[in-house]
Known about the structure:
Blueprint: E1 2-6, H1 10-20, E2 28-33, E3 45-46, H2 49-52, E4 59-62, H3 66-78, E5 82-85, H4 94-107, E6 111-112, H5 121-127, E7 132-141, H6 151-154, E8 164-170, H7 171-177, H8 183-191, E9 199-204, E10 211-219, E11 222-230, H9 241-254
Parallel strand pairs: 1-2, 1-4, 2-3, 4-5, 5-6, 7-9
Antiparallel strand pairs: 7-10, 8-9, 10-11
Amino acid sequence: MRIGFIGYGAIGRDVIERIGREPSGDWVVTGVLTRSDRMIPGIPSTSRLSEFLEYEMDLVIEAAGQDAVRAYAVPILDAGCSLVITSVGALCDDGLARDIEAAAAASGVRVFFPSCALAGLDRIAAAREGRLDRVSLTTRKPPAAWYGTGVEHRYDLDRLTAPVRVFQGSAREAAQRYPQSVNVAAAVGLAGVGLDQTSVEIWVDPACQHNVHQVEVEGEFGRFSFEVNNFPSENPKTGVIVAMSIMKLLKNLTAPFVMGI
Ligand SMILES: NC(=O)C1=CN([C@@H]2O[C@H](COP(=O)(O)OP(=O)(O)OC[C@H]3O[C@@H](n4cnc5c(N)ncnc54)[C@H](O)[C@@H]3O)[C@@H](O)[C@H]2O)C=CC1
Ligand SMILES: O=C([O-])CC(=O)C(=O)O
C-alpha cells in the first residue's frame, strides 16, 4: 500500500516513524504534502498539490487541520486515492461533507475516520442501527492545550486555579469553534445522533494531567459510557493515541484478521 501524508507535525511524523519501525508492514510512504517547502529526510515532499498527486498513492492520511481537508480532500479523492481524515470537524460544513462523499463514490475509493483520540466510534455507529436517544461528550484538557486557541484570549491560562467550562453547545459549534482541539466532537456527532443533536461541554482544567474525553450514549440497545485519559503528544492538544489509532487502521486495511473494526 502506497501512502501519502498531508502534514508532518505531531501525528504525521509519529505515524511515519511507526511505519518505519514495522518493516513487515506492507506500507510505503511515497510523499508528504507540507504547508511550506521543507525537506524531510528520505521522503519526497512538496507544498504543491499537483506535485503531490504525482507520488502515486493508494491512500492519503490527512493529519494537518480542517483547512487542509477543505483544500485537498476532493481533489485527492478525484485522483483515485482513498483518504483518512483526522480533522473531522471540517465535515461540519454539510456542503463539503456531501462533496467529499460524492467524490469518493465517483472514484470508487473510500474515506476513513479512525477513532483517533477517542474510543468506540464503531460502537456509537453500531448503536445508530437502532434508535439512539442521547449522545454527549465532555472534554477536559490542561491549560497548556489551549494556547493558540480562542480560550487563550478569554482566560489567563497561566493563573487558572480551578476548572472552567469554556463551552457548552452542539458538536457542530464545538468543532468549528475549536478546530485544533475537539475534532472528537464532530466524530461523535457524525457517528451517532448528528452534529446538532450531540451535546458537548469543554473544560480547561488545571488539575488535569491528560486530555480527557467522556462519552455517554443511550438508546434502544441500552446505555454505555466511557472515559479516555490520553497522554498528550509533542503537541499538547493532541493525544499520542491518535497516531496509534491510524496504525491500527492501516493494519485493518492490510492484515488477514481485523479486530474490533
Ligand atoms: N480526530 C481526532 O481525534 C484528532 C484530530 N486531530 C487533527 O489533526 C490535526 C493535526 O494534529 P497534529 O499533528 O497534532 O498537529 P501539528 O500542529 O503538530 O501538525 C500539523 C502539521 O500540518 C501542517 N499543515 C497545516 N496545514 C496544512 C496544509 N494546509 N497543508 C499541508 N500541511 C499543513 C502544519 O505545518 C504542521 O506541520 C489537528 O489540527 C486536528 O485537526 C488531532 C488530534 C485528534
Ligand atoms: O487529541 C485530542 O485530545 C483531541 C483533539 O485534539 C481533537 O479532537 O482535535
